Amino acid sequence: MDKNAFLDELANILDEANVEDAANLRDYPSWDSLAVLSIVALADSKFGFTLKFPDVKGLTTVADLWAFFEKNRTK
Amino acid sequence: MKFKFKDKAITGMMVVVPEQERLFVDDMKMFNAPENRSRKLAMVMGYNAHRVVEDGVCASDLAEYGFKNLFETGKIKPEEIDALVYVTLSPDHFMPPTSCILHGKLGLRRDCFCTDIAQGCCGFIVGLLQALQLLEQQGVNKVAVVNADVLSRKVSPKDRNSYPLIGDAATITIVENRPGAGDVVADVRFDGTRSMALKVPAGGFRQPSTPETAIMSADEEGNERAPDNLVMDGTAVFNFVMADVPPMLSDLVMDAGKDFAGIDKYYFHQPNRFMLQKLAEKLDVPYEKMPNNVVEHYGNSSGATIPSAMALNDFESLCRETKKVCFSGFGVGLTYGGIVMNCGNFDFCETINYPNKGE
Fold first, then answer.
1. What are phi and psi of B145, to 5 degrees?
2. Considering only CA atoms, which of B130, B227, B241 is closest in space to residue B194?
3. Per CB distance under 8 Å, which residues of A are interface residues toward B?
4. Do the Cβ atoms of B239 and A33 come within 8 Å?
5. B278 vs B242: CA distance, rounded Å
6. Can you tell me the distance from the alpha carbon of A32 to that of B234, in angstroms, rounded to the nearest whole number?
């Protein structure tokens, strides 16, 4: 999955038409435990790594999240 | 720990669910969350209806009701039961063991072995293993495994993470020696370093219940619960299931001389639809081989979900034919395990309602 596909998936999870690199994740109205779980599941199934809740807490923007996925992906 | 048995079979199953039903659309009104997000949650997780006991009803009341039905309809006789394995996280009392209370109420023999096991999500696996071990003893021919929980009484209705999925139920599984039944292969693993991922913090000896432990407070998402309530770290549990359960099952299925495609049916613990679908994808097993609809019909009733899934989806075929099945339970403990065995040609497989007492 490339960055564009990731951003589409993230937008879908957050009920948004699209998401911006610079946007703060917590500013999206749909950022909640269901969104976090969906992102954790995405990391597991499409990127082959375990994303832990404390890791998510340390990430601020959409770009931070993508960078973390890029760094930890095994597939 | 790995186990192997021969010529032992499940011969009957009875599921008892409370008549009282709660609907997610009503639960939703108690949550501090936007309605559109609650609706999405319900769609993803498969929340719809769940069965919960009325005030004051204990897990053993459901179990007793099920046994009495089996006795009255002549499906089993009390004097035939050689052992009673009672698996629960919601005992009637700290003392005495609930299996002893049931022993008295059901009129079981003095030499019927009774034991309580404190297990939840993996309780069907652990209880069945205890029954299989007892059946190795001479003179033990029929063991009743009870999985019973009323954990709705420990969940805060204002907790969106746990309340919509919780269900209460008791199941009775009859296990017997059956020449020709074939091999039973099992594996159960534990990770106590993560034992606090699912817990009821107060109410035991470590932190007794007090007026203070009943005081609710809100977490960062607005879920309100008290130390007396069940709490789970949902993300950690999800990651545990995805990371640790598939390799264990892969070993197990290989030990049974099979591959994933060679198993006819996967009856797994039912935490929610989402987790079961992800697990099926990871094992490359088609959704229709792994039922995931117990949460939407009855709720997650801890150790009782596997028999509930069987009786809900396959009560007819389980009485008619034998299939190669894989059971798996995973959760509180953390405990995770599986059993591969031939399963079917049951004498009975049914679900009954425990009637409401209130008006």
1. -100, 125
2. B241
3. 15, 29-30, 32-34, 36-38, 40-41, 44-45, 50-53
4. no
5. 8
6. 12
Q: How far is CA A18 from CA A25, A33, A73, B85, B136, in A?
A: 12, 20, 23, 54, 62
Q: Closest Cα to residue B304, out of B199, B170, B175, B153?
A: B170
As for the ipTM of the complex, it is: 0.85
Measured CA to CA in angstroms, residue B123 lies from B117, B119, B251, B258, B335 at distances of 8, 5, 20, 24, 9
Alpha-carbon gap, residue B227 to B284, rounded angstroms: 39
What is the span of the domain harbouring residue A30? 3-72
Q: Domain count of chain A?
A: 1
Across residues B87-113, what is the average pLDDT? 98
Write the CATH number for A39.
1.10.1200.10
> Closest approach of chain B CAs to the CA of A21, in angstroms?
23
Chain B residues close to A41, C-beta within 8 Å: 238, 242, 274, 278
B302 within 8 A of B89, measured Cβ to Cβ: yes
Question: What residue numbers bound the domain in which B130 lies?
Answer: 1-359
Number of domains in chain B: 1
Give the one of A29, A30, A45 whose C-beta lies nearest to B278's C-beta.
A45
Tokens 């309100």, residue?
B224
> Mean of the pLDDT values across residues B331-336?
97
3-state secondary structure of B67: helix
CB pair distance less than 8 Å for B236 and A38 = no
Q: What is the pLDDT of residues B234-267, one digit of tens each?
A: 889 999 999 999 999 999 999 999 999 999 999 9
